[in-house]
Structure formats: structure tokens, C-alpha cells
LysR family transcriptional regulator
Amino acid sequence: MLDIRRLRLLRELALRGTIAAVAEALAFSPSAVSQQLAVLEREAGVPLLERTGRRVTLTPAGEGLARHAEALLERLERASAELAATREGLAGPLLIGAFPTAARALLPAALTTLARVWPDLEPTVEEVDAADVPEALRAGDLDVVLVHEYDLVPGDPLPGLETEAVMEEQVYLAELDRTPPPPGRDPLLARRDASWIMGKRGTLCHSMAVRACEAAGFRPRVRHFVDEYPTVLALVAAGQGVALVPRLGVIDLPEEVRLTPVPLRRRISVAYRSGGGRHPAVAAFTTALKRAARPQPPERPGPARS
């Protein structure tokens, strides 16, 4: 009989490519991972791994079993969700991950709704980097995570995970109040000679801003690399450059900073393990989150980070 825990290790090896990466993601030692995969090979009765020096690759049989493991893990999530649905009420922990802007702008209202409707549910929030989302969900460290993507920077596929749309938001060009560009002229192109304030290199927000400028026909001159939107807006107000800011990031907007909509949107979704969307706690959180994300009239909101 094949052990589901060892099948999970095989699935992770198929996704990550190295035993060291699997061990780091699942908090095992590399030797423990190797030992468990060796046991799985004996259970399977055929070679699953091919070792060349220090490298390990999956054999065709290993790749096929990894695909079956993915399907089995999804069915287990569905089974767990169905069992949870037979219980009366919602109780126990719900582990939520979020990027900072959403944690500040959406989660308080969503958690208030959960506390009112399901007082025995115990949500715990953790800020997470986008790069850590897949492994945190697949490893069971989190149950549901808020993720985002931009028109020009679509999210990568998330093997073993599913996503559900929550909201879209407008992206704005933030700059010192001045005469707006002539009607019909691209507001980004009008600021091609300006200094720019962008997120740190390697972040989704940085990639979005660079690609937006390139799509407008120029390469931006970046002066500052800042992730926190209140700091970005303060730097804009200080005359340090212009920046692109999504609506949820418009916090404590300085009076002298003007926002101009640009043809760019940010999409926010929830991600969970495949098959886990029907879990009552995950579904209740998603419903509360969508309610919190309902469109609001323009305002000079209050704080967030990228």
C-alpha cells in the first residue's frame, strides 16, 4: 500500500526539482526525505528516481505516480471539506496568509464579519511574500492566502492550488499636483523624463511599474526602491519622483499629491489547496472577504504597504 505522506514528498520533488528544496519547504532533513522516497520506491516495486551524481530526477514511472499523487491529494482535500460540512457550526483554527496592502485594507472587515457570524472560528493572519505562497499552502502551514497580479504581470500557475477572484482595483499615477497631460495623451508617457519611485527589484510591483513604462514607450529612470505605499506617497509629496499605486495602497494621501488613473488593473484573489475551496471555513472567509472588497467611493483612505 502506498503511503500518502510519501506520495506528498514525491509530488513536491516533481514540483521543486531537488531533495534539498523539498526538505527545506517541508521542514525535513534531506536525508529524511531521501529515506522516505526510498521506502516509497520499495512500496511501488519499480524505480521512481534516477540518481546521477548528486542530481535526482523522476523516472517515467515516478512522473506518472506524481501525477496520481496530485489527484489523490486533491481528493483528500475534498473529502476533508465534505466531512467538515457535516459538522454543526464552524470552529477551530483557520490559517490565513496575506500581502500587506490586503492585510490592512480588507482583512479587518472580513475578520469582523467572521467573528460575528462564526465566533468559534479562530483565524490567524500571517503576512507572506508572494514567492512563499505555494509551499506554505501545500505544506499545510496556511489554509488560504490572498494573492494578487497585474494586467502586465500575470501570476504564474500554482500547481496543486486553486484561486478564486475577489476584486479588481484601479492603478493610479501619483505625482505632485500639476497641470494634467493633454486629453488623449498617455499619462505615463507624459512623465517619461521624471524620476520614478518603485518597489524593490524582484517584486511584482516593481515588474508591473517597469513593464507599464516600457509599454508606454520608455525605460524609466528609477530613483527610489520602496515597498510601503505610505512612504511612496510621502516621497512623491516631497518631490522625489512619480509612482504607480493601486487603489488599496492610497493611504493618508498628501493634499499636494494628485492621482491620475492609468489603463492598468490589479486583481486580488484567494488561493487554497486544490479541492479545499469547499471547506466551510475557507468558503466563509472567502465570502466575508468579497463583502469587504465591495467597491467604495473614491476617498483619501487610510495606510498600506505593497
